[in-house]
Amino acid sequence: MTAATTTTARSVCPFDCPDTCSLSVTIEDGRITAIDGDSEHPVTQGAICNKVRHLHERVYHPERLQYPMRRKAGAGKGTLDGFERISWDEAYELMTARMRHTIREHGAEAILPYSFYGNMGILNAEGMDRRFFHRLGASRLDRAICNAAGSAGYRYTMGGSFGIDPEDTVHSKLILVWGCNIVSTNMHQVVYATEARKRGARIVHIDVHRNRTSAWADEFIAVLPGTDTALALGLMHVLIKEGLTDKKFLAAHTVGYEELAAKAAEYTPERVSGITGVPADKIVALAREYGAVSPSFIRIGNGLQHHDNGGMAIRTIACLPALTGQWSILGGGAIKGNSGYSELNNDGLERPDLLPDPNVRTINMNQLGDALLDAEPPVRILFVYNSNPASVAPDQNRVRQGLMRDDLFTVVHDLFLTDTCRYADLVLPATSHFENPDLYASYWHLYMQLHEPVIETIGECKSNFTLFRELALRMGFEPELFDLTEEEMIREALDCPSNPSLAGITYEKLAAEGWAKLNLGGSLSAVPGRLPTSSGKIELYSEAMKLAGLPPVPEYEPIAKEEEPLPFLLVTGPNHSFINSTFGNQSRLAKLEKRPALHMNDADAETLGVRTGDRVIVRNGRGEVRIAVKAGADVLPGVLVTQGLWWEEGNEGVQAINTLTSQRLADMGGGATFFSTRVEVTKGSC
Ligand SMILES: Nc1nc2c(c(=O)[nH]1)N[C@H]1C(S)=C(S)[C@@H](COP(=O)(O)OP(=O)(O)OC[C@H]3O[C@@H](n4cnc5c(=O)[nH]c(N)nc54)[C@H](O)[C@@H]3O)O[C@H]1N2
Ligand SMILES: Nc1nc2c(c(=O)[nH]1)N[C@H]1C(S)=C(S)[C@@H](COP(=O)(O)OP(=O)(O)OC[C@H]3O[C@@H](n4cnc5c(=O)[nH]c(N)nc54)[C@H](O)[C@@H]3O)O[C@H]1N2
Ligand code: SF4
Ligand SMILES: [Mo]
Q1: 654 phi-psi bin (left φ>0, alpha ψ -120 to 50, beta other)
Q2: What keywords is this UniProt entry annotated with (predicted)?
Q3: Model confidence at 275: pLDDT above 70
Q4: Which tens digits make up the pLDDT trace of 112-124?
Q5: Residues with CB under 6 A from ligand 1
Q6: Given this model, what pLDDT does residue 347 score?
Q7: Which of 98, 192, 364, 657 is the most exposed place for a label (fewest CB within 10 A)?
């Protein structure tokens, strides 16, 4: 018997998480046996979350898909029964024949890709796939399910996704964690903030839910959902009235201060208190602290922008650091996202110029239900990869009704039989990221990372890159555009002279060192000087918003006006142990989360006559969900919170929470409104 060979290799965490950790993987005889944080990576610093520490259980999970399967003739949709194994040749034959027929009869617009960031690798999330669908002429997908409203809002103020370097936040003295559950969703920001706290910083968490991040912060401020624009204007009111602004910074680096000040004057602490549920004296105290303490840092989260008014909320909060001149101080400023710095040669990678008809329709991924049921011409082929729409998309009854259509041919490429696979005609096995080369950028820290495969491909799995490359060649598309290696495409992606932050980041450097830090040219951030707003300055007044029919200065607009007038607002955010619906089928992690729970204020529980553990029916015009109550003081009266996108498969009695959410779009960017959901609650019988 020969001794086992044990090696370690470097990898990158591929999930949709701001930390984009560098991983150190132990491999014994070709199998991953342990996963750790890379201790050499400047941000990861050897620490990773519990989810990914056990990622090899997912890679070698007994239920992992290993070969293509098709739904047998006559087997109805809506179940995971009735699949039969086929070869890749047969799968390609099925897809190409179906696509050719559909294009001939109905046009390529009848084909719709549906993908998100199950794997954040540039090649596997927005490389070969996008190029393929552009060349095909398929309907375009507006991938607005995550941060679209907030990014659009932030862009109006700051010109793009430009914040400060998170490594600098150790210098902050006051940290506002605003609508962001960083203990669960951005653990290395917690590491930096904890270091800042050791050096004297105070941490304030502003949220609708007293959660893990509130327990860790020094102070928790509970707001009513969707009222943060008013809160930010209330803070500005006090800052301006009490002369706590930085007039020099405002004059040099902003436009529209006078207009903003006039608007903020309307938002007295008393009025804002009435809107937000935050006591007036707390608003005044926070404003005075924000005006006095420097450097101060705001971590702006995604929770704020999954609302009807989410774009405006983030646009408004993004004005605060400018009022106090924080951008010019080390450790001062904000981060909503930093993807502006890692902008690649997307046009070269995705090739939108290949679209036969540049005016082909675009379907917003938040409105999949309507698209499948009502779009004209109808969607006839749906191609799902890197996403699980039967769990994550809003208005599930409509989504699933659409997916049930007999005349819809649905392909799902995934690692597991997700809830979406219940509706698939063809299921294709995907590799894990450990099996593929790719390039990773973080939307929070500033390191680009190159990934080399650390294990052999499992079973007959194929990466998204390989799948779309081979499909293109079988469709007879130009080999010079599609018969490429990963390395060739990564080199293309990095070739982006218009982005100064990529200066010096070459394939060779990444291959030799594993990662490279984006180059801010010696500045603390893109502020001042590099902001791509039309004025080149921070826009407190935005002409671009006026042109788009939006209020040009921040203004509070209540949420959920189009909803039925039901008594509760329901916020359904992510949980600690899953990433969206990913990991929901892994027993170790699902057990830690126990069961879905509905957080409710004690006063509401008493009025309804329910106690912790009782099952209730939560309903609105879109559907109903049965769930157990957790009564307490974690939410304000009138607010309900439940966390996690749970799998129905394997979880008796669990229903997709997105049954209750709406396809309505937010004020900006076509964003989702998951958290602006009105519901009523009745006592359940079971
Ligand atoms: N563990 C874990 N990590 C993840 C994910 C996951 O599912 N699990 N998902 C990843 C993805 S895709 C994303 S987009 C990010 C999301 O991570 P975050 O940016 O943290 O966003 P959310 O968790 O959606 O919401 C953050 C907080 O906003 C609160 N909130 C909701 N509405 C409001 C409001 O109106 N005002 C205020 N002030 N707060 C509000 C919620 O209660 C929640 O605590 O996390 C990523 N990381
Ligand atoms: N109610 C409610 N709904 C929400 C949210 C919420 O907070 N509340 N959050 C929203 C947000 S912020 C987001 S980002 C979306 C996320 O929505 P999705 O991007 O759909 O997220 P996941 O549920 O993680 O599904 C990703 C799928 O991709 C698969 N996958 C992973 N790697 C690969 C690969 O390399 N190839 C292929 N083909 N598949 C792969 C995984 O196995 C998984 O099934 O959900 C949104 N939905
Ligand atoms: S999920 Fe986030 S915190 Fe966990 S290892 Fe991946 S990048 Fe790091
Ligand atoms: Mo997201």
Answers
A1: beta
A2: Iron, Iron-sulfur, Metal-binding, Molybdenum, Oxidoreductase
A3: yes
A4: 999 999 999 999 9
A5: 16-17, 146, 178-181, 184-185, 206-209, 211, 223, 225-226, 228, 301-304, 307, 571, 573-574, 576, 578-580, 641, 675
A6: 96
A7: 98
